[in-house]
Amino acid sequence: MLANFRVLFFLILVVVSCRKATTFKTVTAQDVINKAIDVSGGNRISNSTLMFNFRGQKYKAFRRFGNYQFERCFIDKNDTIIDLLDNNNFERFRSFKKLELTDSTKRKYSKKVNSVHYFAVLPYGLNDEAVNKKYIDTVRIKGEKYHKIEVTFNKEKGGDDFEDVFLYWINTKSFKLDYLAYQYHTNRGGKRFREAYNERIIDSVRFVDYNNYKPINKEVSLYNLDRLFDEKQLKLVSKIELDSIIVK
């Protein structure tokens, strides 16, 4: 009888321990980012051709098994400008003739092309090799609960702006990226906070536009921008809008 009681008591302890382990499982930044990329169509993006317009310029992204080619096309003084950025190089063509560019000019143009393509498909890209992710906290914005994730970059393969810091707010229920903020150092530096709107799903890929804000007081901490947004202490400076989106 005593032996049976000991066995029963042991089983109860095991069940309780398992429930506690499940209840208090630690959520990591990597877990959140993986889920966010998945629900936003990351698998589809990885092997796709994506086209869209942004501020009067045409963009095209070709991705296959880790290889990519990003394009930008626009008109400058009646000439057609085509920028091509891939895993290894940047090239610019004017009226279909390749231009010889200095290394600094290549970096400047490639940064602009890469930036638009990068923001267009967020959170895709947050598992790149140079990315470091850190779970900051669980917070509320407009009454909704969010995972607050910090992203920094290694110097190696982190690009010219590897010192920039990003924050991402990912909904705890839907795992959709609804807000982001970043601190940059070029052009005397600054901070921005973006609010996603106009969500649409195109061929299983989630796209959004953004209201782009800056803090009224430029000295505030990047990590407080979510609170300041809720308190209406940010100033709308622009809108980030994509149109004519096609996914193949």
Q: What can you see in these coordinates?
A:
Helices cover 25% and strands 45% of the residues. It is built from 5 helices and 14 strands. The radius of gyration is 22 Å and the shape is globular. The chain has helices at 2-23, 29-39, 42-46, 103-120, 225-230; strands at 48-54, 57-64, 67-76, 79-86, 90-94, 97-98, 131-141, 144-153, 165-171, 177-184, 190-202, 205-215, 234-240, 243-247. The protein has 248 residues and is an alpha+beta fold. Mean pLDDT is 90; it is low at 1-24. The chain has one domain (29-247): Clam (outer membrane lipoprotein receptor (LolB), chain A), CATH 2.50.20. The N and C termini lie far apart (69 Å). The chain has a 7-stranded antiparallel β-sheet. The chain has a 7-stranded antiparallel β-sheet with strand order 7-8-9-10-11-12-13.
